[in-house]
Amino acid sequence: MLLNIKNLHVSINGKEIIKGLNFSVNKGEVHAIMGPNGTGKSTLAAAITGREGYEITKGDIIYKGQVINDWSPDKRANEGVFLSFQYPIEIPGVSMTNFMRTALNAKREYLGKTPISAKDFLRKMEEKKKMVQIQSKLTNRSVNEGFSGGEKKKNEIFQMAMLEPELAILDETDSGLDIDALRVVAGGVNQLKSDKNAFIVITHYQRLLDYIVPDFVHVMYDGRIVKSGDKKLALELEDKGYEWIKDQFDN
Amino acid sequence: MEKVKKRYPLEEKFIRHFTGHSDEISRHDLPKVSRMRREAMKDFQRSGFPHNKMERWRNTDLEGIYETDLEIFDREIPYEKQLSEIFLCEVHGFETRVLSVLNGSFYSPETEKLTVDENGVIVGSLARAMQEYPEFIERHYGEIMEQRDGFKSLNMALATDGVFIYVPDNVVVDETFQIINILNKPSLVINVRNLVILGKNAKLRLLHCDDSVNHHAGFINKVNEVFLDENAELELYKLQNLNDETALLNQTSIHQSANSRLKIDAISLNGGMIRNEIFDLMNGSGAWSDIRGLYLMDQEQHVDNQVNIYHNVPHCDSNQLFKGILDNEATAVFNGYIYVKRDAQQTNAFQRNANILLAKTARVDTMPHLEIYADDVQCSHGASVGQLDNEALFYMMQRGIPFADARMLLMYAFADAVIDEISIESLRINIEDMVKRRLRGDLSICDRCVLHCSNPDQPVIFDIDMSKI
Amino acid sequence: MSDKKKDKGVLEEVTTGEYKYGFVMDIESDQAVRGLTEETVRFISKKKNEPEWLLEFRLKAFRHWLTLEEPDWALLHHPPINYQDIIYYSAPKPKKELESLDEVDPELLDTFNKLGISLEEQKRLSGVAVDAVIDSVSVKTTFQDTLAKHDIIFCSITDAVQNYPDLVKKYLGTVVPYTDNYFAALNSAVFSDGSFCYIPKGVRCPIELSTYFRINAANTGQFERTLLIADEGGYVSYLEGCTAPMRDENQLHAAIVEIVTHDDAEIKYSTVQNWYPGSKEGKGGIYNFVTKRGLCKGRNSKISWTQVETGSAITWKYPSCILMGDNSVGEFYSVAVTNNYQQADTGTKMIHIGKNTKSTIISKGISAGKSNNSYRGLVRVTQKADNARNYSQCDSLLLGDQCGAHTFPYIKTGNDTAIVEHEATTSKISDDQLFYCQQRGIDMEKAIGLIVNGYAKQVLNKLPMEFAVEAQKLLAITLEGSVG
């Protein structure tokens, strides 16, 4: 099992957002997590990646057989956890190229490998850029600075391609994307998908799932996974709306 | 080796006055106040007047005033109905409760020196409040303003009267209070002091006007202390329209308790020498302040705004915006200072000063300073000096607007960010009107109350057909 | 939460870096007696076989210095400096004319190798002409042949006094008069050596000129004096680097740099200042009181200051431009990093006198540990300076909650056609940026280094290539504790 979350409780500023969540992911699988706004989807992503301020008050996150509750975010990243941010931050003055090379070498160092040569690095950049149809000029700019919404999301997928994670979490990657950008992003994900990695796709709408087909669909509500099924569940949700879930569980 | 400082005759005069009239000056004092006076006078004897070797006085030269032979005025003028009319405000749709200060003393019939309203609001003469409500004086008088320089020491030693306002907990005052400060005798120097106390959750709107009613020289040395208890809210509008011979030193210190809110709009329209010192002491978490100023100076006028924000505790927000337009040989100084104490985390402090120079001989010195000892803060400041946008001017003129109007429009647009913040609509309209007239050069000091000079029968014509633009 | 705790620790760790240039060289030196009297001044002048006029200049400066008091307006705190407990002259021994690099004291060459400056390497590979000043005396100027071909004079100021007395006499003290300030008066009285450079009319210096300064001897003050002149249409890019050994006592460095550019001339002056900053506990370190000023004398002339300030216990330094010629341009790009107990009060003055003059100020302050870092700058537009333009941007970054970051701009405008803009912000590294980097696998320490370098990039980009790399490393060392 790649990821196994047991009875997870997460609080922000003392307020419990995730309230006993169980969830597991195997290699080669794509899981979609859906649910109304404010039910803890992004909190789950933050907890898995170790964001500060998200306190695990109970339960364990077990990744590749180890409890990672206390791991720093970079250690988790170097172990293969990647988050495509919902709102990627701008980092002025730090070029994409420099940023990516630093990240890639950090991982190599962590794995006891020598740094990547400039030539190999550039070749890899070019190859991955093509995959997400990202323009060369974007990688010459500072990280996310002056990028449009769509460019930022493409840039996230580009970074994912570069870092080759084992567990990728896409947090609302479809928000703010037009249909063409959505196709590009999904195409990138599908190319990266293999039996050695797994994806968790957090989304509010079904439309992304037309392009990234999930093996499992989970519905989150009030800090828990309340319903799981296959991709038909997503269609059912689309059809009936979240009110259907709310009605079922509020009573 | 310390050089022996030259003493000005005016300094000597103050010192002599203090020793010669100490009984009279201390007539209504609490023991605490008498003690403070003596100490302040000692400080003054040591320091004398501030001089331009001092960092904070580098750009404001008062030498001319020090050399003037001014008369120390210490008498109360007996109330006369006729005299009281100079304070009348006949502004359309804008009712205020007027608190008059004439030549440094609270001015009203004996029976109205200090009144207590039904809602518990106490308002009137500070001298009277010292006698009748010593508990407030004990707690706050002289405790908010630090004695940092000669003028404050002088004021502490010599001021005997001014306005006292107390708003009890949970009282929201509906009407707007208006302090009108006037000199009507030639060559006076006065020391006046105001104390404003707002209880928990109390709310007050205060308009504070300094006006000249003639063209005599004068020097006003004023200290205002304001205490805002938790969650209290004060809107303070300062309007300064003085003659070119008058120097005004207006020093305001505000203690802000937790979650209190302070809004200041300081508008300087005329005055030979105006110096506004604001000390905003954020001593309670969650305090908020927005301090704005507009100065429109010409001839040889000088305006100096010293705004000091002390973020002493975490989670406070402050904002400063000062804008000025300077013509002829006018000079302006802006010294904005933001201090963030160690551990005053989560501070947001912003400061901006923008100036437009209309003449080659006008000057501005701006010093937006930050001193920051906490890391989790958002602080920024900006300062600019420039001219009206020539392209915009041309664009408007190309659309048929005369140069003078286009220029006015741009100047007015520049000033608008400050005026727009005035929440009392009728006051805003009035001030807008005054600013327009001031920018046209039509506004001089009025011969009566400052707000009176706006004649509602003859509204200012400033109608540009926007459809032409 | 052990790893997260460790990350907190990292921030502390990165803000307590070690100084790696702190070795003491075993170089014999020739010292003046301790203390400052007229005799000391005469001794230095005699030692250097100076003409009478220069001795007079020194003596006038010394007498003036006696009437002055140490300035106290900067946001700096230090115990009083005992000016009688300083050795005012210290030269490596033996001092004799050196014909080639082979004659340079091997110990000295080794020192420069330790500093990462091999004179030979520099000469052969990078085409940078190097003048090295150790404890006040210039020891070697490389690359003379190339320079001679272009009639460029680049030598120690001591040599210049002997060989080009008219030039020195014409310019010395014209930009920074000895009456300028306390430390300028002191320097004018006791300066021992420094670099001199003259670019003749129409010559663009084909190589970067460079001086390395080092304080080596104990209890010694260093008072170097640099004079750069670019005649009409001349251009030179000049680099300066500084280091000092680790010592428990504080050492004084009071230098003067004077620059003059004539019509259409340009001088680019870059500094990487890495004097010993003192120990983590704030013991020792250099007191760096420096007066640097450039005069854009001619029309269309330009002076550009770039500085990376990472060293010194105390930095008091305001490289300035007097924009006298019409259309002249002044620039100031600065990164100042303070850590532990360091204090820096640095900035610039841009004095607009000519018409259509333009100045740019970009200052990036980074404070860590228990340090205090202040920007202090003056922009003055005089009444005749029509169409003057200034843009200033002064940002401060705080790393940790025990340090201070301060901004003290002074803007004085006396001309209605001037446009002056000043912007400043103070912030810390955002948690979101750190997390983003960490999420991509970059550890806290590296992430801080990356973000800080990004933050300073606007300034670092202004440095010549070989310095930029060094400067980036220095930022990393100052903040990280290991070579980045």
Give structural notes.
The complex is a heterotrimer of chains A (about 250), B (about 475) and C (about 475). Chain A is α/β, with parallel strands linked by helices. Chain A has a single domain (about 25-50, about 70-250), classed as Rossmann fold, CATH 3.40.50. Helices cover about 40% and strands about 30% of the residues of chain A. Chain A has helices at about 40-50, 75-80, 95-110, 120-130, 135-140, 150-165, 180-190, 205-210, 230-240, 240-250; strands at about 5-10, 15-25, 30-35, 55-65, 65, 80-85, 90-95, 140-145, 165-170, 200, 215-220, 225-230. The model of chain A has no long low-confidence stretch (mean pLDDT about 90). Chain B has 11 helices and 21 strands. Chain B is globular, with a radius of gyration of 22 Å. Chain B has one domain. Chain B is of the alpha/beta class and about 475 residues long. The longest helix of chain B has 17 residues, at about 30-45. The model of chain B is unreliable at about 445-469 (pLDDT under 50). Chain B has helices at about 10-20, 20-25, 30-45, 65, 80-85, 125-130, 135-140, 150-160, 390-400, 405-420, 425-440, and strands spanning about 70, 95-100, 105, 115, 120-125, 165, 175-185, 190-200, 205-210, 220-230, 235-240, 245-255, 260-270, 275-280, 290-295, 300-310, 315-325, 330-340, 345-355, 365-370, 375-385. Chain C has one domain. Chain C has helices spanning about 1-15, 40-45, 50-65, 105-115, 120-125, 145-150, 155-165, 165-170, 180-190, 430-440, 445-460, 465-480; strands spanning about 30, 90, 130-135, 135-140, 155, 195-200, 210-215, 225-230, 235-245, 250-255, 255-260, 265-275, 285-295, 300-310, 315, 320-325, 330-340, 345-350, 360-370, 370-380, 390-400, 405-415, 420-430. In chain C, the strands form 3 sheets. In chain C, strands 5, 6, 8, 10, 11, 13, 15, 16, 18, 20 and 22 form an 11-stranded mixed β-sheet that branches. In chain C, strands 4-3-7-9-12-14-17-19-21-23 form a 10-stranded mixed β-sheet, covered by helices on one side. In chain C, a hairpin with a 2-residue loop joins β3 and β4. In chain C, α7 (about 155-165) crosses α8 and α11 (about 445-460) runs antiparallel to α12. Mean pLDDT of chain C is about 85; it is low at about 1-10, about 95-100 and about 120-125. The chains are: A alpha/beta (about 250), B alpha/beta (about 475), C alpha/beta (about 475). Chains in contact: A-C, B-C. The interface of B and C includes residues 365, 367, 369 and 387 of B.
